[in-house]
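Section: Multi-chain targets

For targets with more than one molecule, the full set of components is provided together so that the structure can be written out for the assembly as a whole rather than chain by chain. Components appear in the order listed by the source. The example entry contains two components.
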Amino acid sequence: MRVATVTLNPALDRQLIVSNFEVNQLHRLSGPESSIITPGGKGINVAMLLDVLEIPVVAMGILAGYTGRILEEELRRLHPRITTNFVYTSGETRENITIVDPIKDTITEINSSGPEVDEKTLGIFLKRYIMTLSRVNTVVISGSVPPGVDSGYCLDLVSRAKHAGKTVVMEGIGRFFEETIRNVCPHVVRPDLRRTQTIFGRSLDTLDDYIKLARDFLDFGAEAVVISYHIVSDVVATKEGVWLFTSREKVEKSHLLGTGDAFVAGIVYGIDKGLNYFDALRYGMAAAIAETKHVEKSALSISEIEKHLDAFEVEKKA
Amino acid sequence: MKVKDVLIRDISAVFEDETIENFVRMCSMQSLSGLPVVDENMVVVGYISENDVINAAIPSYFSLLQSVSFLPDTHQLVQRLQKIKNDEVSKYMNTPAVTVKEDDTLIHVADLIIRRRLKSVPVVDDQGRLVGVVTRMSVLKGAMEKGV
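Its structure, encoded as tokens over all components, is:
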């Protein structure tokens, strides 16, 4: 195990491929390949991608009920090399439904909130997390937090990993994310801007807003920053500067599923291989572009990523 | 065929100082019959199963009689469970735990499972740290699909 992924709010992802999807209409799926159930939640997605990239990984998180057990079984069936270390709580793990329409080029997502996690479970998880830290070099904390988890908990997870000398990668959005950034900024930061373009009370409108945000993350202590910008671009930053990565190819919107996770997995792959942060960011971008070639998630290879290392323009902005 | 061919890479475990109540809660939620007991370095120091808790909760002479049909009333069992639920796992775990390594043969772990009546065996690395488990079913499935 070299990498631990933490998914506090995993989900069983149900991806439905429906051509010409319309609300208020009856749709029939064309076959079993149009309905795919996979383990999900950002950290778990990253773990699956890292496994494909042959990085030994341990997937940690909080599961619940029957859905949680299905998720764990599926994860084991699809990725038997991934080590699992989940803690269970009462209730049911959430299900996330994604309707992909390849004709209209749309993605419709319905995500539920997840089970309420009690303090006892959080205590049990923390003990296992601390134990696992001794076995890994990098920790990825990614995704939303379930009800019952306060912002201090994430902050504690990041803080313990940093004190243990681990590289910490974090993706998220909301109060818990902002508080963690302000207090114990992880080494690599990626805000999840899918649902909101507001962060630290500021709205992101112009490219300058994104560049300023990237610099703020660096000021808080980040070593590398990625901020998704207008689908085909990403604002990336290290202590050496701020760049705009822009894909040379048009990206189909229906192929965007999982690209954020692929970006994170690419960065972690780069860090694991000993690359500097800028080159690790390039691997992230290449992985994200490679992922857009697939409708389904977690279908990458090292050669595919490396083939896409020049598939984007790099423009220094600051 | 080796242990690594049927290994389930799950490192769910309990710590020695965790309570029996926690152990039962974890097993029931994860549908497990037992768990490895580890220290803070993930080294396996014991194993605790549902049987160990049942044996701790019933008077010792019942295990000699091999039947609980002599129990005067189940209330006694419930009372004893209440009494031990806050006890530490270390009090009832089996130590040292029976463990195997990834490169051990499947026939070796099958022999242990049959001889020691185990449902699950922790798999450890050279430092004794937990890397996963093999279960009766994973051995059976492996043997059926690929031979021993």
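Chain B has one domain: 3-146.
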